[in-house]
């Protein structure tokens, strides 16, 4: 999924899980296996692998520690542009982002839609995930659940769903974006983690689709990714609210990471997506 570690030289966590309560191990889940491994760079931290693919990093007792760079980029976008604190997370993993927002915003309500029911039960058992209504984990397929959301029932939707290294196509179509748009309040915020290859065809297609539904689209990524030099993550930001071309606060947060990223506003993003073909549901 192109997840990057910052390897910032952390010291040992004061809340490290002791040997007797260590969650390390291999577990059967609904879709296969989940492996929880100790982080070799930080005592008391863990990495969750789902069917062999790195999914989440978690530090028990320290919910604001986001080790994957792309999650920091999502956090920066949401904290900058969210109109409210009702968040829906499509894709759960170890609930790193829901834990983060539950701690940052005491009044936040985070609903997590996780396809793998047993994975949701596992991470709830092994890690310090706040209980509902702060963090509610529900089993379900992301597209089907999004179609069921009541109109204007949430402030933010975050899509971070992968099957292996790619996002399932039904979560990248115009019809899906329309369902997400209906579920958001006016000027609500849609944020997606788009993993793409150097040709950037996937990102351009998603942006083209988002522009058919939302008024403004912006992106966050590191420069090599935006120049089409490698596989990696592009964070897509969409809203009917005004999204500025430049934003000093978000820019300073992005440049402070181990992997400096850039924020690009709607004018740049629209030009970038030129030639992108918006995806439609099969049969549309």
Automatic annotation (TrEMBL):
Keywords: Polyamine biosynthesis
Organism encoding this protein: Corynebacterium casei LMG S-19264
Protein known as: Spermidine synthase
SUPFAM superfamilies (UniProt xref): S-adenosyl-L-methionine-dependent methyltransferases
Annotated spans, Disordered: 1-26
InterPro entries associated with the record: SAM-dependent_MTases_sf (IPR029063)
Top-rank taxon: Bacteria
Extent of Basic residues compositional bias: 1-10
NCBIfam families: MFS_SpdSyn (NF037959)
PANTHER family: THERMOSPERMINE SYNTHASE ACAULIS5
